[in-house]
Each structure stands twice: as structure tokens, then as C-alpha cells.
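Dear colleagues,

As part of the handover before I leave the project, I'm documenting each prediction I ran so the next person doesn't have to rerun anything. This entry is a single chain, and its sequence is reproduced below.
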Amino acid sequence: MFSALALAVASCGKEVGRVPFSEAGSEVASLQLKAGDVAFWTDLDIKHSGEAVLEYRIELWQNGASVATAVCDPLGQMSVKIAWTELNIGSSHSRTGEGKMSCRANLAQGGTTEIRAALVVKLRPATMALNKADLVIKQ
């Protein structure tokens, strides 16, 4: 059992960087990425009352040009969760932990890559406490 879990986590890639968020807005990070798939995870700590819809809007830039984009849902289905706690009681919800989102990007070439990311609240709940919503980049 443990070896299967270790293999599943190892196949998720290694963290190469993150873009930190504690509120909605835009951030930029510069990372060294390899050619190939780029996986996006969220490291989330949120509590809200009522329905919430959040998304990361991500653009990858190399040599002054946009080379890939992705839109990711940090509250959506996750294929892998690590130290994940989720509580839903009536209209009150909380989520804490790391999860692999269903979005990804593919880079034709490796090198210095600028990650331009925005965390957008598409549907604001009645109350929301967003302690952390880091966008985690893995390869």
C-alpha cells in the first residue's frame, strides 16, 4: 500500500516553483522549466459560506512571447490530493491542502519561463476567508 502511494505521488512531478496568493489579483514568477508537460497544483486554505467559483488564469511566456495558457479551477475535481481536508456543512465550506488541478500546459522548449498568473473570484460567496491559494508548478 505504501509503495503504491509513494509511486503515485512521485509520478506527479517535482515542484519547480509557486506563485503565492492570499487574495484575488495578479502575480508574476520567473522559473526554469523543461520542455514538455507542466502540471498545475493548488496549495489552498479557504473557508466560505455560500457558493464560490475561483479560477487561475495562467499564461507562460518565453523570449517575450506567450507560449501556453491554462485556466484552472482550485475548487474543482482533483486527481491527487495531499494533506487535504474538506468540510461541507450546509452552506459552509472549507478546504485545506494541496491538490493537482485538471489543467496543464505543454512547452515546446525549455528555458526561463515567466509565469503570469491571476487568481479570479468569478462568483463571490456571502463570506470568504482566503488564507492561501498558491499556484504550484510541477514538472
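Strands lie at 15-19, 25-33, 36-49, 53-62, 65-72, 81-89, 92-107, 111-123, 127-138. The CA atoms of residues 130 and 138 lie 23 Å apart.

All the best with the project,
I.
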